[in-house]
Amino acid sequence: MTIKRWAEDLAQIVNPSNIKINESLKTYTMTKLGGNADIFVLPESEKEAAAVVKYAYQQEVPLLMLGNGSNMVVRDGGVRGIVISFTKLDEIRIDGEKIYAQSGALIKEVSRLAAAHSLTGFEFACGIPGSVGGAMAMNAGAYGGEIKDIIVDCTVLTKEGERIVLSKEELELGYRKSIIAKKEYFVLSSNFQLKMGDQQEIDEKVADLTFKRESKQPLEYPSAGSVFKRPPGYFAGKLIQDSGLQGKGVGGAEVSTKHAGFIINKGNATATDYIETIEMVKRTVKENFDVELELEVKIVGEDLTN
């Protein structure tokens, strides 16, 4: 089955204006790297999302979920099949001390709205750049807080397009992992439980965390955020720093001099540069400290073919 036929079939499911053929993924990733998607589709409702997932499963078309692109590196050859994005599913609702948020809503926007309603518990996410869906899949966390502290339940689609609701326990949330990532579910929405707090204390905490993030992270450059998970008993950034790797890299990619846990795109990097820099860091840290760094970011797609 051809790409043209996939697009024609999908046009019966979603608005044709939300289907893009041979679409560059650089625009949709925080690294500003990567090749093209055969088909890029943006469903406008949960019903459309389920229909696209079901179609891909039934037709055996490869399907990749792309959230806010903050935790993903797309190879230069791009992605075959369908890339689906839920960025149009971005509704956020507050009901007392509970928050409902769809997958495509930015997690920092949910945090901001919670703070504006004097709700405490979500401050840790005020600077996390990803979507709710991505945050759920990796149990995102920062500054001592994480998704599992506040989640009630999560509605997902299975690979077959079936809609199911997972409780906090069923989500199996651990350090940067979940049943969502393990089973390759597609997040539709989540419910969070917060508490009423003191507005001044909430505002002060958000301001403090924002200052810490802006002063310590290289936000002026495109990057995939923190590249590596925290190794047991160590800090990835410290190991990389102590290996003398800051300022070093391949091509246009470089280990940040501001925060060694970040690899930045200096402006002319390729995905190959970025991935080779990751491999160089892993190799050097292994040689120096006998520690295997594990990726927090996801690398997808194909290399360029000659």
UniProtKB/TrEMBL annotation:
Cell wall formation. NCBIfam families: murB, PRK13905.1. This is UDP-N-acetylenolpyruvoylglucosamine reductase. It is found in: Cytoplasm. The lineage of its organism: Bacteria, Bacillati, Bacillota, Bacilli, Bacillales. One of its GO terms (cellular component) is cytosol. The keyword Flavoprotein applies. Its main location: cytoplasm. It comes from Ureibacillus sinduriensis BLB-1 = JCM 15800.
